[in-house]
Amino acid sequence: MTTSSVRVGVIGAGRIGKIHAGNIATRIPSATLVAVADVNATASEELGAKWNAKALADYQAILDDKTIQAVAICSSTDTHAKIVQEAAAAGKHIFCEKPIDHTLEKIDAALAAVNKAGVKLQIGFNRRFDSNFRKVRELVANGKIGKPHILRITSRDPAPPPIEYIKVSGGIFLDMTIHDFDMARYLMGSEVTQVFVAGGVMIDPKIGEAGDLDTAITTLWFANGAIGTIDNSRQAVYGYDQRVEVLGSEGMAAVSNNLPDTHVHSTRDGVYSSKPLYFFLERYTESFVNEMSEFIESVGNNTATAVTGADGRAPVVIGMAALKSFKENRPVKISEIA
Amino acid sequence: MTTSSVRVGVIGAGRIGKIHAGNIATRIPSATLVAVADVNATASEELGAKWNAKALADYQAILDDKTIQAVAICSSTDTHAKIVQEAAAAGKHIFCEKPIDHTLEKIDAALAAVNKAGVKLQIGFNRRFDSNFRKVRELVANGKIGKPHILRITSRDPAPPPIEYIKVSGGIFLDMTIHDFDMARYLMGSEVTQVFVAGGVMIDPKIGEAGDLDTAITTLWFANGAIGTIDNSRQAVYGYDQRVEVLGSEGMAAVSNNLPDTHVHSTRDGVYSSKPLYFFLERYTESFVNEMSEFIESVGNNTATAVTGADGRAPVVIGMAALKSFKENRPVKISEIA
Amino acid sequence: MTTSSVRVGVIGAGRIGKIHAGNIATRIPSATLVAVADVNATASEELGAKWNAKALADYQAILDDKTIQAVAICSSTDTHAKIVQEAAAAGKHIFCEKPIDHTLEKIDAALAAVNKAGVKLQIGFNRRFDSNFRKVRELVANGKIGKPHILRITSRDPAPPPIEYIKVSGGIFLDMTIHDFDMARYLMGSEVTQVFVAGGVMIDPKIGEAGDLDTAITTLWFANGAIGTIDNSRQAVYGYDQRVEVLGSEGMAAVSNNLPDTHVHSTRDGVYSSKPLYFFLERYTESFVNEMSEFIESVGNNTATAVTGADGRAPVVIGMAALKSFKENRPVKISEIA
Amino acid sequence: MTTSSVRVGVIGAGRIGKIHAGNIATRIPSATLVAVADVNATASEELGAKWNAKALADYQAILDDKTIQAVAICSSTDTHAKIVQEAAAAGKHIFCEKPIDHTLEKIDAALAAVNKAGVKLQIGFNRRFDSNFRKVRELVANGKIGKPHILRITSRDPAPPPIEYIKVSGGIFLDMTIHDFDMARYLMGSEVTQVFVAGGVMIDPKIGEAGDLDTAITTLWFANGAIGTIDNSRQAVYGYDQRVEVLGSEGMAAVSNNLPDTHVHSTRDGVYSSKPLYFFLERYTESFVNEMSEFIESVGNNTATAVTGADGRAPVVIGMAALKSFKENRPVKISEIA
Which of A325, B177, B317, C309 is deepest in the core (most CB within 10 A)? Predict the structure, then answer.
């Protein structure tokens, strides 16, 4: 590595921490993985050993390391806001997984700390870095579909998460649809102004008992006059279903799912092809690399990050409005929340 | 033709009357086109001459003709209910174009007359007879996708109709979305219980001045617990966009658009293929044949028709609820209407 | 019908005769089906009754009918050349099913008679009138793929015909590949100059015992310098497989199969879609209408036909060269045949 | 890395050496990149520095390093056979890029040395490790298409290589089609017994002046009775075109191209989508990782390699037969060559 490589510490050695650590270590030539930290010392040591990085039980040591310029916060959601503030105070540039927090107070405190410290912050909305969605954004932004009229997002998981996860997830809107709210803002280049939700518990009654939904259709209104619809399910048995389309006055841009292969098997009984890639680890492999790569570039070149603190806050607000809409069975203006 | 052929009179020699007359004359071996009637005598004469049928200015002569067993009512919407009643009184079996009427009073009077006379009635929701949608219905009805959770319909015209038409159309929900409401009931095999509409005027301000919308997203709730979304636009510049999908507990059934050809043109600049078939005349050519053919079979075999009077009434009620929802910006229960 | 309608007699009331008779009677407004003739009087009578046309046992009566301007020759192949000559002598314009004959002597005699009589002749290579192939031809002819380099045709039947048919078919090259030879000439706009065949009996040994092949790959050389490959099979269990593509210096034009519907069924086990349309009756329904419609137009407007006698002769010659190539296991120049 | 990691030296730091070195260093956890060697010391040093490996000008130092178990031979083709022999003598397991050599004498000497030393050898036919082709092989091998009848391979480069490369490439059959010959053997699980070639110079006359072809259709006969066709072009302007299909007695398995994204842009003028991935670096990124990963596993687990020396020799023989066929314009049996 050259001396100008950005030196990074990863905080959190769970599933997403492992992804980012591996990508920093192997896929991003201009970054160096210096250290990983996790309260679970075993997890930390295994990950550090794998990529030849320091293994720490306490992330404070990362913040104290003057040679480290940037941190990737991959710990549990309830610790994000606190660590963002501490990292900002330590002068580190910050990549923080979504959501920043489940409360606006903590989010705002974190963003204020970042702002005060003048460090960079990028939120982990990785789907913006996927080649499919990026192509749609490009077509919309370049006027290739004219003025946007209708946005349609289909976002379905292959199977619900464990009930224990559901209970601490913040609910479907802050855990799952939050990605779609971000995608909506990204694709349309316009703010969401109002939401309406129809939803239910169709897959597993335990999800209902945990106070959550597993199926929802969300209607969106945008500041530019367009409208949109998101349909979410926690269970598409055929795999991770991630499609978007934007209809405009001059055309439509749409993307379909990525498949593991292009095979077609034609038989007496019909024509068979492959299911979509199973879930986000398979589907968004490259977008995780891309988002970190762009973060590193922002740090290295001192340019703005692609997903700002405000971009991290907005989908949380929309998610809160969505939940309120569902509970009150009425359209809810975003301005009612914050 | 054999003597058992069903003898039919067509009332109305406009665009849709021409289609049905031609299909009866040439595509349905078990039917005979006996006469056509239109207040516009020229239209009637041209059509009669083309298919070697009697040309009448007054449809009463068709009702009086004892050799005619069935009529196809293709006149303007405001005359449907009256002619249905007269035809029923004359003992004719009735194929009636959609919608039966724009008011429930007239619809109910018409259905009562049909019921009293004991004649058959089929409403012209032709899309049910399309091979794509029929295949989806079949998969849903046979449990091939498990229990239905989410319905998604995209229904977009290539270009808005003339403003003069808009003014007498009954509005987008009774003129355009009515087909989608029927499709929703057909595909799900369950009644719609509530609707919510987000919509606007995005294509042509004149449509707004005429008191109508040109773009709408309608959320549906079904008696079986499922939910659905319909997105409508009066202008998809790439052609008539007619797609549906149903997600269920065990899979998804979906259909895409029909194209005029399967060509793919690969160049330095990208890969090009054909746009969807332009509009309903091109797209639903065969479904018009199929619906009339099944109507004739129902008459010939004395079996129930595939689209009943109740099927003709329900989408009108949903359309009224949709308009109310848009005006009041709230979900509206179908039971609020009728 | 107007007085300017072209009056047609159909000779032969078998499978293909029925198609043409029905199309002339119902789908082509500018033609009138006057009479049908078949040595099988029952077949003739049934077909005549169906479309309200005269039913004859002897086609001579059609040739003698001065009100008939055109004939469609749909009798058995061995009668084509003779009837063409008689019809030409009677001054009838002629639509003749493919092939004209299995021998060049008879073909040349028939074409000479047509030429002498100055009547129009169109050969039944219906695939040229299919919207898919027509689009490819249009792209090639308009230079949209630059200079053609490689032609690829896949042409596979769903199941072999009965052995009794095989025995009188003239062999795979004159019965089945002949369509592909015509397609090759049509798409490339250039003559075939040489062929080479690799083939075998893979599906049914009885086909081999009858002296025929059931599987073949034919290499083609064209006068314009391009090369091509045709792969044929008598048995694609998934349905009628009819694809072509042309690669050129500036791109590629390709078409895939037509399907009965666009449905996609996504399940835990994979994604299923429909097989291609079963066979030529389903696949080429519209091309049969189009070819007859254009023939009628040629007669009505006194313009050249779209598939000339020379177009009918050339694929027979190529087929003979193909058989010679297979027998001698070497490339055979077309000039070796005729 | 664990102590059981396979230690590898890469010989040759050109385009393909860089790919394998990077993959060994970052994508294959059970391998360690120890050293890279190249006669071009600068290339060697840059590559070594990038992946923290020893940089050598002379590959002899790799062969002398007792800690290195395996080598990847990525040097110029004319050095392959010699280095294979030296590496075998040094007891190294060998991954060797294709082709082993352009002469059978040298190939046989290399394979004899490998055999004598008892080391493992894998040849770099990377396409066998692509998920698309692997799926087709799996379907064929598992009898999912019945008995194979017809193989069809389309293999086209986006643009011809420089003329200087053409001159030393061994010709289109040993440089380009060799991959397709390997694919044919792999997919069919049967040896090629005979070939016939039709070809020409259509893209660039300079290729002809260099004694090579740029466009070819090769017919193949297999020991199992099946036949096949390969169409090659050095210039498909729309990108790297890599498709295969196998028709069998019970169905067909086929794959199409991989695209950079799934976007569809629908406009007034048509529907646009993305071109195939540009060339082999983009298209076969993962297959390069997979082939090396499986080689490392073979070494680590002492199992047979997936592409043997015999697999490396056979396509060269077929290529020689193909060239002979083209020159002599006749089918050539493989047994005529060796």
Answer: B177
Q: What is the ipTM of this complex?
A: 0.95
Residue C86 pLDDT class (50, 70, 90 cuts):
very high
Closest Cβ opposite residue C273 in set A238, A268, A271:
A271
User: How many residues belong to chain D?
Assistant: 338
**Which residues touch D234 (CB under 8 Å, ≥6 apart)?**
D156, D157, D159, D160, D161, D172, D176, D203, D204, D207, D214, D215
Q: What confidence tens digit (pLDDT) does each residue in D79-123 have?
A: 999 999 999 999 999 999 999 999 999 999 999 999 999 999 999
On chain A, the residues whose CB falls within 8 A of the CB of B224 are: none
Contacts of residue D142, defined as CB under 8 A and 6 or more positions apart, other chains included, come to none
CA–CA distances in Å: residue C320 to residues B250, D198, D204: 55, 20, 34
Residues of A whose CB is below 8 A from D132: 261-263
Inter-chain residue contact A237 with C275, CB threshold 8 Å: no
Give the predicted TM-score (pTM) of the model.
Answer: 0.96
Cα B122-B287-B174 angle, rounded to 5 deg: 60
Are D274 and A132 a contacting pair at CB < 8 A? no
> What residues of C are in contact with residue A268 (Cβ under 8 Å)?
237-238
B180: left (phi over 0), alpha (psi -120 to 50) or beta: alpha
Inspect the interface and report whether the beta carbons of C274 and B132 lie closer than 8 Å: no
Reference D232, options D282, D330, D157, D174; nearest CA is: D157
Q: Which residues of D touch A (CB under 8 A)?
A: 25-27, 29, 50, 131-132, 134-136, 139, 144-145, 250-258, 260-268, 274
Please tell me which chains touch A, using 3 or more CB pairs under 8 Å as the contact test: B, C, D
Q: Answer yes or no: are the C-beta atoms of B130 and B287 closer than 8 Å.
A: yes
> Concatenated DSSP letters for A19-57?
HHHHHHHHT-TTEEEEEEE-SSHHHHHHHHHHHT-EEES
